[in-house]
Amino acid sequence: MQVQVGLLARSLAAAGCEVVVACGPGPVDVGDAPVARLPAMEARSAPRVVSSLRDVVADVAPDVVHGHGLRLAPFLAAVARRRSIVTCHGLDPDRARRTAAVTRLTAVAVAACGEGPRRVLGRVGLRSRVLDNAVPPMPAPLAREEVATRFGLPHGGLLVVSPARLTPQKDPVTLVRALAHARVASAVLVGGGPLDAEVRRAVAIEGLAERVAVVEWLDDVRGLIAGADVLALASVWEGQPTAVLEAMAAGVCVVATACTGTADTVVDGLTGLLAPVGDAVTLGSQLARAADPAVRARLAAAAALTAKAHDPTAVAAAHIDAYERLLAGRWLDAVVA
């Protein structure tokens, strides 16, 4: 989400909008946009966050206040209800009903980053319109030899990269088991997280220690994605995964689970290869299919058209149109329930 906020801020500014970013502590890359700092978002700090945000809105007097993450809806309602939008960047289906109920009470306009999240919200009675994520220009790819040497991997064969926090949502253990089933690839799992020890145990149990590296987040992960043969994800749910769009933009084949969000971005057999959620055997079989360079090339060529539709300039234009709809009282016009 932080990547998308920064990219949107820079793209809107390039389109001629005046942009001020209000956010909590921590690094943020929003180009030349002014940054107004808010207290860290915690339950006990909620009154201070509202007060600080109200001060920012009073000082800037924006036409539109755009929050990212549904938990911001009550804060936006408190300071600028009629000119606020909140974007859902992904939603655990098991928690959707409760989250939607709270958001609906705020009466803040809701956007969803893709058709998948929009449908999840719709099933629990919260209507939204789609505002897609953007895919930034990709850096030069890291060389295969450099990657193999850096992570202690074999210098030949299929190179798989999975840029994902090691959390239950991302289900990295299923990915490890898929790699064991495929037996065709070396892989770098980038992200770290609470399942780190469990993932490392799975790597050892499956006998993959020489072919799978498990590492913390890397500053040059986008170059690593660009240099891979395959980007793989085993997620249980997603919003509109930036990593998938980045792989598509870099000409890298996507192999993933057909979860909400990913299945709305990747067309199985046309722009990538999908497997059922939690199915390590089928995911492994799809990785094995991607070992064929001709298959990868065909899928990547088609996926490039998807990435093009997420160009930052086009996404910024869509946001500006949405802001104008909000101010004109036409937020949900032409939106299918």
Describe the structure.
There is one protein chain. The protein is of the alpha/beta class and 337 residues long. The chain has helices at 2-14, 46-60, 73-80, 96-106, 115-123, 144-151, 172-182, 196-205, 221-226, 242-249, 280-289, 293-308, 312-327; strands at residues 21-23, 35-37, 65-68, 84-88, 109-112, 129-130, 158-163, 185-191, 212-216, 230-233, 253-257, 273-275. 42% of the residues lie in helices and 15% in strands. Strands 9-8-7-10-11-12 form a 6-stranded parallel β-sheet, sandwiched between helices. A 4-stranded parallel β-sheet has the order 3-4-5-6. Strand 4, helix 4 (96-106) and strand 5 (109-112) form a beta-alpha-beta unit. It starts with a helix and ends in a 10-residue tail after the last helix. The radius of gyration is 21 Å and the shape is elongated. It folds into 2 domains: 2-134 and 311-327, Rossmann fold (3-Layer(aba) Sandwich); 144-308, Rossmann fold, CATH 3.40.50.
